[in-house]
């Protein structure tokens, strides 16, 4: 069954704004990543979805391609973002098949609930490696292609098209600290810092580098783990000033904004999409 547009994209955006653009996304088969990909592909982009699980990644690519006749969406599996060479091959393959890379989303993440007393050094490291080193590897593997994209599509571009955009998935945990999420909180803080440095070093090339920090998002693996009982679900909903959990569409719309011409001057920053949740109750 085709996923209706209203589930992954608002009516604010015009069809075709991302024509001739290519997205490279890690974690693109996940709930947030597939909505981000679906939205960009709907608006004209082609995409390479990168994941660890081959079958899941290829199935997601096939499904997402249905949103637009003629869309090219490739699933590249068996890629562990902790391994730079895996990512480098995936980026090269993407360029060979689709002609370039204009937008990069580093969305792959690892998470589990554990108190500090229950975290081994290796457990802490596993999440730092997937989230932070994985983001670094993704940036490093795709940077030459983004520089090329930005040089072809300068920012701002009188022709109205853009290129050379990095986006990482962050969180709000580290603004206050977060019990049971020390590992994730530390990893996301490092990602925010890393993206700031990318914006400083590569802004002069016309590249932008930003992060999106989602709040509690319906239907995600992360929230299934973090709010697994009705009580904690109700408590979390009451703590969100906007009165509801977010949707994957909220994150996809913010992604479209930062990659669109409307986002040309948004660089080196973090966009929090959480209904003001962190201001009331900390990270989530
Ligand atoms: C304590 C745990 C643990 C747990 C694993 N470990 N689960 N420790 N409590 N619940 C420990 C292991 O014992 C081991 O340490 C170390 O972590 C590495 O575990 P492995 O299973 O060997 O690692 P690996 O196979 O690489 O798996 C990584 C993983 C796993 C992070 C543990 O959960 C994973 O692959 N996740 C990917 C999918 C995922 O998590 N998606 C959710 C993303 S949601 P020892 O010492 O025994 O060797 C998300 C939302 C963030 O990120 C919040 C946003 C708002």
Automatic annotation (TrEMBL):
MF annotations from Gene Ontology: 2,4-dienoyl-CoA reductase (NADPH) activity
Domain of life: Eukaryota
Coiled-coil portions: none
Gene Ontology BP term (one): fatty acid catabolic process
Enzyme category, top tier: oxidoreductase
EC numbers, comma separated: 1.3.1.124
Keywords assigned by UniProt, alphabetized: NADP, Oxidoreductase
GO cellular component: peroxisome
The keyword Ribosomal protein is annotated on this UniProt entry: no
Reactions mediated catalytically: a (2E,4E)-dienoyl-CoA + NADPH + H(+) = a 4,5-saturated-(3E)-enoyl-CoA + NADP(+); a (2E,4Z)-dienoyl-CoA + NADPH + H(+) = a 4,5-saturated-(3E)-enoyl-CoA + NADP(+)
Cited Gene3D superfamilies: NAD(P)-binding Rossmann-like Domain
Name used for this protein in its record: 2,4-dienoyl-CoA reductase [(3E)-enoyl-CoA-producing]
High-level lineage: Eukaryota, Fungi, Dikarya, Ascomycota, Pezizomycotina
């Amino acid at each position: 069954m085709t996923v209706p547009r209203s589930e992954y994209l608002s009516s604010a955006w015009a069809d075709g704004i991302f024509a001739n653009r290519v997205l490279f996304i890690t974690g693109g088969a996940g709930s947030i990543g597939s909505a981000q990909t679906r939205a960009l592909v709907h608006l004209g982009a082609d995409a390479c979805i990168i994941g660890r699980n081959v079958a899941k990644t290829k199935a997601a690519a096939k499904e997402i391609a249905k949103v637009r006749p003629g869309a090219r969406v490739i699933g590249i599996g068996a890629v562990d973002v902790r391994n730079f060479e895996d990512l480098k091959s995936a980026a090269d393959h993407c360029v060979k098949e689709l002609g370039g890379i204009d937008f990069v989303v580093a969305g792959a993440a690892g998470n589990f609930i554990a108190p500090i007393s229950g975290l081994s050094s290796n457990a802490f490291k596993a999440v730092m490696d997937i989230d932070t080193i994985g983001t670094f590897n993704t940036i490093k593997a795709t940077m030459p292609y983004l520089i090329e994209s930005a040089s072809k599509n300068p920012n701002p571009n009188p022709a109205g098209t853009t290129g050379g955009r990095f986006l990482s998935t962050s969180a709000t945990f580290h603004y206050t600290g977060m019990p049971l999420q020390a590992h994730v909180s530390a990893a996301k803080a490092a990602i925010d810092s890393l993206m700031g440095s990318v914006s400083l070093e590569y802004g002069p090339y016309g590249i932008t580098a930003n992060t999106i920090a989602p709040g509690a998002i319906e239907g995600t693996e992360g929230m299934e783990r973090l709010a697994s009982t009705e009580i904690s679900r109700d408590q979390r909903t009451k703590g969100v000033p906007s009165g509801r959990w977010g949707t994957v569409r909220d994150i996809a719309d913010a992604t479209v904004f930062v990659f669109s011409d409307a986002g040309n001057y948004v660089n080196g920053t973090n966009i929090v999409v959480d209904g003001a949740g962190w201001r009331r109750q900390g990270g989530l």
